[in-house]
Fold this sequence. Notes:
By secondary structure, the protein is of the alpha+beta class. Helix content is 35%, strand content 24%. The protein has helices spanning 85-102, 104-112, 127-135, 154-162, 166-179, 199-214, 227-244, 251-264, 308-324, 329-332, 398-413, 416-420, and strands at residues 2-6, 16-22, 29-30, 35-40, 45-49, 54-59, 66-68, 72-78, 217-225, 270-273, 276-279, 285-291, 294-296, 299-300, 337-341, 360-364, 368-373, 379-392.
Amino acid sequence: MATEITVPQLGESVSEATVAKWFKQVGDAVAVDEPLLELETDKVTVEVPAPTAGVLKAIIAEEGAEVEVGALLAHLEEGSGAAPAPKKAEPKAEAPKAEEKKVEAPKAAAVAAPAAKAANLDYPLPPAVRKLVDDNALDPSKIPATGKDGRLTREDVVMYMKGGASAPAAAAPAAAVSSMPSGPGREPTEREEKVKMTRLRRKIAERLKDAQNSAAMLTTFNEVDMTNVMALRSQYKDGFEKKHGIKLGFMSFFVKACVQGLQELPAVNAEISGDSLIYKNYYDIGVAVGGPSGLVVPVVRDCDVKSFAEIEGAIAGYGKKARDGSLTMEEMNGGTFTVSNGGVYGSLMSTPILNPPQSAILGMHKTQMRPMVMPDGSIQARPMMYLALSYDHRIIDGKEAVTFLVRVKENLEDPARLLLQA
């Protein structure tokens, strides 16, 4: 009996997805709950498991296809054992014949031009090249390469499939480079690669532009002396890790410092809804983390009542999930304020963009030793960090924004305030 594989419910307000990757091909046997494919939404990636054991009979939505919730993805033939075996073997037996027929002319051309350089597979294939090779069941080692250091380009694969001569293809890059204009009229070459944006990247671009267009965004700056926080962390990090099983980082200090600032200045924790203001008496802090597909912002809930260990544990868990691509919708929905740490990448100064509908975001930066004039007039080298608060001026006045940033600075320079809430 055949089972239809459809697009599952993807979460609130998400109705479309892109077929990112098929883990199984037609004819492959699958077990119950074994992942069949991966769907990419504008927030997360979702694996679609097999509802029953059987053999993948047909793929309806190929990789790259845009699909809606409930759309048909594939047909699965239920059952396992001897019956499905021929179906699994059949595509493998036919695939070489199809390939020979499809690339018969290019192979002849490759033999006719033995001087062509073989592809150097020590270099990973670019995504566009890999997709073209995989989609057409080609062997990259048999395709003459014209790229630098013997790298395979998209044009090499296209020429190979079209049956173009290998020797002229190998000679073409040299002529193209020698005659290539240096001005803005340069023609596209094999050194350019056009790759379709992922759904997540498109959504990021859309949201960032919307934030710029809709909010009266402004950024205010300050700097914080990290000496006391670094000393406190150095003193207690070993015992903290031994007791809680998690490393003591700096992010928990910043989250706690922000919570105290938000409690004092509620407008920074509010949002605009139509012609009303919504003041939120809870503190769900989004922590921006980088993943393979782009920046994502999972939310640490109720940070006002969470301990340092609970905050560090939540952030570490989200970081791992972001790298694995396994964050869920629920883990990224909501959030009243965001903290973004560009310092981990070496950023010394930046102006972060709001994460709508939130009204403010704090940007952390690289800690760097700088000469500072101390209250007694002496000059000392101190570990300093620039802080940037971007905020929506429609709801947050300049005085409130500056005061909030000063409170964060005071809390970090005197960490005892975080414990005493002074």
